[in-house]
Amino acid sequence: MLKKALMGATLLAATLNGGLALADTSAKRIALSNNYAGNSWRQAMLASWDKVTSQAVADGVVAEAPAFTTAENQVTEQAAQIQNMILQGYDAIVINAASPDALNGAVKQACDAGIVVVSFDGIVTEPCAYRIAVDFKAMGKVEVEYLATRLDGGNLLEIRGLAGVFVDDEISAGIHEGVEENPQFEIVGSVHGDWAQDVAQKAVAGILPSLPEIAAVVTQGGDGYGAAQAFAAAGRPTPLIVMGNRYDEMLWWKEQKDANGYATMSVSIAPGVGTLAFWVAQMILDGKQVPQDLTVPFLTITQDTLEESLANTQPGGVANVEYSLEDAMAVVTGE
Amino acid sequence: MLAQLSSPKFLRAALPAASFTVLLAAIFYVQPRAMSYFGMNLMLQYTVPIALATIAQMFIITVNDLDLSIGAFVGLTACIGATLLADTPLLGTLALAACVAAYAGLGALIHWRNLPSIVVTLGMSFVWLGIAVLILPTPGGTAPGWVKALMGLKVPYVPFPIIAAIVIGLVVHVALMRSSYGAVLRGVGGNPKAVGRAGWSLLKAKMTMYAAAGFFGVLSGLSLIGLTSAADAHIADRYTLYAIAGVILGGGEFTGGRVSPVGAVIGALTLALTGSFLTFLRISPDWQIGAQGGILIIVLALRALINRREA
């Protein structure tokens, strides 16, 4: 028994060492460890992963790339899942993590076993892992910068997300930074829309009577359509509302555009970011130099790309973009 | 000899070990890589805190109670371990001692007022979680170096988790099954009136068992952060059900003080390994909880069969 165990250990060590220096990734196996699948964004993320990786497998880029989702969004469950992946001998593990810190033990074990770990969206802080983070602050700032190109100035209404969540603080900080740099704008009101149309509509309807004329509404995604409905119900002129890539928002925008030439922009994070993580993992296995910390570009929809985005989005869904190897290379080299 | 081997008593004691062996053999068959020092270490690592939490639950079940707060409690001790214990060891030790004392106090309260333990511990689970969130509002902290060093111990030939499981099982077995006061403690679950008439304090017995549960809960939390290196208030939410299932899988009964420490440890290992086994089989995690429940039912059905022969 002991002899067998030792033999197994050497065998494993040999496979681990042998898999490092090759540049060809057709025999490599990449696994996705995902902590949660309970909303439309995550469902779209998994669908994108499946679509892009099955094509990659068919093309012989990698041997396989299965996705595993934990059932209960639990740290201990995901840590055990990662350890099982180490045992199964995957060459790279792509992680959307349940916790930024508490998976570090398992992630370190994976790194020590010679496995490439790439985390995205829910990133891990363990230094040996690669991180593809979202710059939510820049996303907020982009909104105000766009307004500066369209308007001479005026009053802004800010719709925030879910109170107390890190993402809400970051986007809002970005918006406020943008307003500081463009003092012709002033935020005259702020409500929490919880990233949901119905909540946003109620909140905006509640604050509207107390507000002066609003030139534009800055949002966080999922709340633009509700804001538009509230303005219409109050009988006030529709301001410039920044949208968040949701289907109903784009549909409303399209209707307005066709009716009266309404123009705005829409920005959010594409669920296809998981496929970016896949290609980054593949590039690292391929022996390419990749910085440890990358930032995801957000998906911006403009007046010109609206029809195309709308056509490609499922009703009730979110505009998505799947990455190709070339796209991923552009992100890595900072294009 | 053969008669002894097929006696219900022996079969009953052997059932947990047999199911564990079958599962392990199946894992080795599906994933030969697991059959190595490295593989066993990796696969069994997270069973150490689960085994400790299961032992904690077993103490409570011994006195005919049920603890629905052990998962949240382990989460709390993990948070204390990753913050107070790491920054100011003295304060951290005091806080953990206070946690154990609180558990003893719970035992006293349940005995004094004759409260249903399920209700009290269910309520307490929210208290533990609340305190944990206050101590560590966002996931993070760092485990003390010595805890990490202990859990990362590389023992020659035998993986550390196996040694830990054997030590935990044996220590508790000697204390609860072989000592004279251990017999009294189990008697509190079996026939409290008789134990009371014999002059033993039922209050003291319950407080002892609850304190022991609290102590093993603390050990579970510390061993957990030794593995994860950081804590999260929700880190051990699943342990409540794992612990109950582990005790039952290991041959324990909900009533009557009929428990088995060695069985409970094996039960915890079996449950944790089913997760690995199902992953190796590529069964979606959505099915895993159900599959774990299925395995539990099979083992319990086998036991019912043996019990019938016993009767």
TrEMBL record, chain A:
Domain Periplasmic binding protein: start-end pairs = 30-289
Could you give one GO CC term from the UniProt record? cell envelope
Signal peptide location: 1-23
List, in alphabetical order, the Gene Ontology terms for molecular function in this entry: carbohydrate binding
Per UniProt, subcellular location reads as: Cell envelope
The alphabetical list of record keywords is: Signal
InterPro entries attached here? Peripla_BP_I, SBP_2_dom
Could you tell me which Gene3D superfamilies the record lists for this protein? 3.40.50.2300
Q: What is its main location?
A: other
Pfam families in alphabetical order: Peripla_BP_4
Report the family membership.
Belongs to the bacterial solute-binding protein 2 family.
Which protein is depicted? ABC transporter substrate-binding protein
UniProtKB/TrEMBL annotation, chain B:
Could you tell me the membrane topology recorded for this protein?
Multi-pass membrane protein
User: Has UniProt tagged this entry with the keyword Thylakoid?
Assistant: no
Please provide one cellular component term from the Gene Ontology annotations of this protein: plasma membrane
Transmembrane segment boundaries: 12-30, 42-61, 68-85, 91-110, 117-137, 157-176, 207-227, 239-255, 262-283, 289-306
Q: Name one Pfam family in it.
A: BPD_transp_2
The protein, known as: ABC transporter permease
Its principal location? Answer: membrane
According to the entry, what is the taxonomic lineage of the organism?
A: Bacteria, Pseudomonadati, Pseudomonadota, Alphaproteobacteria, Rhodobacterales
